[in-house]
């Protein structure tokens, strides 16, 4: 039986309902060499972010996926603290972001060392938190992968092949996604265990369809950030193109930012539930399809 690997342990599909597949609790978009990078008082983060979690719990959301990875301030200990304070499971990644957000130790590590690091976090625990990474989060340059980004991807594919973990990547252009899928398949892993994050940023819709037809997940994660009509139009277009079984929806919102006073002002994770889903239903999308997009697809993408 497959499970979602969360801060509160493995969760089966029967234990879960709606899942948000791309959000952030804590992010630091400064590079890792900057003073104060990823530093914050855990209790300050809990005070700011726990109310945001409580709001979505009341709307029926049962888990979210934290997309802050290495290089952009991943703090698994903070994710765990927020999770425990709200009794709410959070799925935390291993992996590392793109250049220039790659710390020196990752730059110097061999592919074998990176594979072993990710494999340990997927099968044992992240740092000393006591919970396993649920997936692998990477990124690629807008115009193509650098040699260093390719090294990280190859190591990720090898670790993922041993665990059935999904690999998600912040990748803006569809042709770069196709290159990433080539690398993954060359390492013996599968396109259906890849998530094309920020798929909406590729304006050539044919690439959206091509990525889904290759078996990968496409993710429209600008709910509440893009115009509501625009987002609804895109979702319906993807459904009409036959991509419903490979489509994920989320906000890419939050979050506590340690570069801002008191962490800044969070943007809520509620727009999908309160605005987009009612709008899609108003436009004739049936409840079964909405359930698939918000319950079934996120579980199938991230569970292993």
From TrEMBL:
The modification N6-carboxylysine is found at residue 137. Gene3D superfamilies: Metal-dependent hydrolases. Transmembrane segments: none annotated. Keywords: Hydrolase, Metal-binding. The keyword S-adenosyl-L-methionine does not apply. It comes from the Bacteria. It holds the Pfam family PTE. Belongs to the metallo-dependent hydrolases superfamily. Phosphotriesterase family. PANTHER family: PHOSPHOTRIESTERASE-RELATED, PHOSPHOTRIESTERASE-RELATED PROTEIN. This is Esterase. The lineage of its organism: Bacteria, Pseudomonadati, Pseudomonadota, Alphaproteobacteria, Hyphomicrobiales.
């Amino acid at each position: 039986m497959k499970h979602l690997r969360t801060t509160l342990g493995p969760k089966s599909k029967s234990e879960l309902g709606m899942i948000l597949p791309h959000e952030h609790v804590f992010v630091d978009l400064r590079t890792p060499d900057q003073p104060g990078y990823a530093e914050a008082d855990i209790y300050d983060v809990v005070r700011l972010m726990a109310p945001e979690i409580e709001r979505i719990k009341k709307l029926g959301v049962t888990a979210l996926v934290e997309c802050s990875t290495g290089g952009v301030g991943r703090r698994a200990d903070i994710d765990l603290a927020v999770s425990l304070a709200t009794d709410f499971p959070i799925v935390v990644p291993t992996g590392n972001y793109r250049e220039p957000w790659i710390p020196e130790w990752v730059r110097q590590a061999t592919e074998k060392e990176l594979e072993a690091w990710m494999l340990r976090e997927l099968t044992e625990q992240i740092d000393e938190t006591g919970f396993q990474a649920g997936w692998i989060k990477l990124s690629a340059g807008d115009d193509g992968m650098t040699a260093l980004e390719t090294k990280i991807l190859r190591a990720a594919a090898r670790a993922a092949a041993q665990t059935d973990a999904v690999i998600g990547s912040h990748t803006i252009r569809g042709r770069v996604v196709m290159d990433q899928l080539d690398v993954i398949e060359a390492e013996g892993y599968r396109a259906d265990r890849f998530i094309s994050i920020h798929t909406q940023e590729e304006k050539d819709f044919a690439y959206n369809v091509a990525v889904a037809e290759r078996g990968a997940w496409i993710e429209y994660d600008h709910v509440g950030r893009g115009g509501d009509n625009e987002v609804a139009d895109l979702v319906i277009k993807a459904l009409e193109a036959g991509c419903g079984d490979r489509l994920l929806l989320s906000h890419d919102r939050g979050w506590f930012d340690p570069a801002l006073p008191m962490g800044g002002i969070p943007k809520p994770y509620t727009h999908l539930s309160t605005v987009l889903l009612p709008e899609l239903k108003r436009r004739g999308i049936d409840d079964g399809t909405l359930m698939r997009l918000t319950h079934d697809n996120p579980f199938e993408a991230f569970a292993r």
